[in-house]
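Methods — Computational structure assignment.
A single polypeptide chain was analysed. Its primary sequence is given first, followed by the predicted tertiary structure written as structure tokens.
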Amino acid sequence: MTLSNPVLDAIRGRRSIRDYKRGAVSHEELEAVVDAGRLAPSAMNEQVWEFVVVTRPAVLKEIARLAPENGPFIADAAACIVVAGARTHRSIYLDGAAAVENMLLAVHSMGLASCWVQAMDKDYSRPIADLLGIPERCVLVAMLPVGAPASAGDSPSKRPLESVLHWERF
């Protein structure tokens, strides 16, 4: 691709990072990340998402303990943003995914790191929701640990554009 601008560069440069340096992420930075999520598109602009920001180390460790396969590294993050929303809404997972992508790009743009941790329909979803006081009417969508990167992260291979782009017909 020859086109370049700050948004495209952020999309191309973002990586899933699971290693974090010790140190806090400011409330201002975390609010800016959640604000980016809240500005994502949603079906009929209904905005049925909710965001819980966790910064207490003991709670981060408990979340990691509850999600040992997908999120053990949450224990080492400075914060974790838990995305939830109305269980009965027809597109909470799609709307939540749009919010998550906005937040991942915001995190990257600030020189911080994150990794999308799946929370949809996982065995650990309800126990984590209960831990955080998220009501039964809500379902977890994802969790985003946030911290200063301890590594650059892997650059996973992606399918070439010409193998996924179809003009006019498949």
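Note: Residues 92-109 form the longest helix (18 residues).
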